[in-house]
Amino acid sequence: MQRYTIGILGGMGPLATVDLYRKIIELTPATCDQDHLHVIIDADPRIPDRTAALLGNGPDPTPWLIASAQRLEAAGADLLLVPCNTAHAFLAAVQQLISIPIISMIEETAEQVSRLVPAGSLVGILATAGTIASRLYQEALAHRGLEALVPDSEHQALVTNAISRVKAGKLDTETTELALTAGSWLVHCGARALVLGCTELPLVFPEGALPVPIVDPTRLLAEAAVAIARGERPLPSQTASGSSVWTEKLSAKQA
């Protein structure tokens, strides 16, 4: 059986990186160590904040992302996973400088959602302000005949607070309540499914807490990676989802 080596470009944040690796392990059919997949992790938490960069308040993380991706490729990775939704806004520029494919968490998620709800449905997105501003999910869902529903400013503040608390290691009921309140509001506004579009959120959002499907992009990324690495799904060509427009704007601003 053909097996491929998985590279995880992590550190954004560290707990989200651990969550992805754990899900890869849990989803791999194995009865002993040797049945598991070869995974190489480069977790550099020094990568600048992606949301700050997208909102014009921080440095462009692209050089750090490129460096990590190139380290993983040099180490022998055959495909890359990036457990950070917001970072996907910068991955088109990264993909241009490596020869192995980046598996898009955004595309995997949008495809799964399209199987769960009818065309024309509203899909709630809980994500960083940067991911919302980049329109990654809005565009991916629109391509599949679905409409993204994002929080208003009041509820986005709750999501941002919840994400910050997870990054600070606060995986408690207060953090869960913040995220759940925002998610409940989206469902109240008509969302037929809810995407946990920040990799910190699956760590605190309870399964089955709302009367609609709750979609975990980290798990979907892990499922795709396991299938590809085990040769059950073809190794794709270079198809990273994301727009280099953001990087171009940042470069122009910093010049």
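[next item in queue]
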Amino acid sequence: MFLASIKKVLAPSLGRIKIIVAETFGLGPAMALSAMIFILLVVIGATFLFIYSAPPDTIIITSGDDDTRFLKNAEKYQKILARNKVKLTILKSEGSLENLKRLADPSFRVDVGFVQTGVAKKQNIDKLLSLGSISYEPLYIFYRSTKPLERLSQFNGKRVAIGEDGTGTHVLALELLAKNGINPGDKTELLEMDDEDAEKSLLEGKIDAVFMMSDSASSQTIRELLRTPGIRLFDFSQADAYSRRIGYLNKIVLPMGSIDFGKNIPEHDVNLISPTVELIARADLHPALSDLLLEAATEVHSRQGLTHKRGEFPAMLEHEYRISPDAARFYKSGKSFLYKYLPFWMASLINRILVIFVPMLLILIPGLKSIPVLYRWRMRLRLLRWYRALLILEEDLAAPVPIETHNELLERLNRIEETVNKLKVPASFADQFFTLRSYMGMVRERLMRKTGLQN
């Protein structure tokens, strides 16, 4: 009943539109209906793309645990994106490895996350892209000893805290120790502990060394350990070699006195090795949101720090993950013109109009122009077919026409006339149609005169 009512209301309007299209383009009813369907399909398709291509107003980021730099940075991003009316939902995690697993799992709702380089082994990262490196992640190794240790192999047989399972600290510690001949199950006791418990155990003398990353270890923890007598910070004298052998590692220097000028802590330059933290996104992240995230990253991470210069981050450094094309464009030329000078919502709207509706017109205009051409060509062929049939019949009249042949020719002419009279021809072809009918009359008159039967 409802559909019948809609049909009753729309039928007159559609009929009028069809007549307008037919008269405007010189089309028959069927071709006018086809043109209307073509226009409708293009408009519907463009409207769908316009709606579908709108950037989401919410991004989900997987960050880190409480009191970690990952979580604090995510909260800074949240405030910056809110300026553009985009909500950033923050998911806490155990660290880089859990972030990566979430991003790699299509069933898990997340868009971007902070991931330390070096944790991608045995993970499916084909559909993940990097928006760039946003910071160094220095590795700090604190240990108890009366004299400095120069190589990681010297921790063999000791009690070493290597971070909790699933953290970037744990992954990097195992790799570095393995390259120095220390593996789980050997005489070295490798303990999975969080930073707080590891610091307490080291201060109490229950363990000999602890691996900490700058993300999870607070600056207060690092300062406290550096000031504690009997506890040393491991100086990577082989830092250059590590950075050459392990491609995602970098050599950085903690300058002498940078922690405490008055007490000169540290008392000499300390070589550290550091992976970088990358902002990893799924491949389907909207380009406009990619720009917003990189703009936030620039605001948060471009400042000078103990281990990096002003403007060094974010940086387009490619390690395990492919650099996003949208990110590469941002690093090269910044935000696009519209997003640079207009509010985000307005730039998004205008950009979608330019990207979708302008190409729609480029499709519609040539398409609508070609429909009358094709239709005229088709109608011309249909009329020429019967012109040709009349010409053949006229050629047959060139020879004497006996009475038995007359009947055959007359029957052929009648069939042609009957078919032509059934043709549906638009007004634009009226002259050719009536000329064809006049020609039929001439041929009939000649046929009758030829056989001497003209009345």
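[queue empty]
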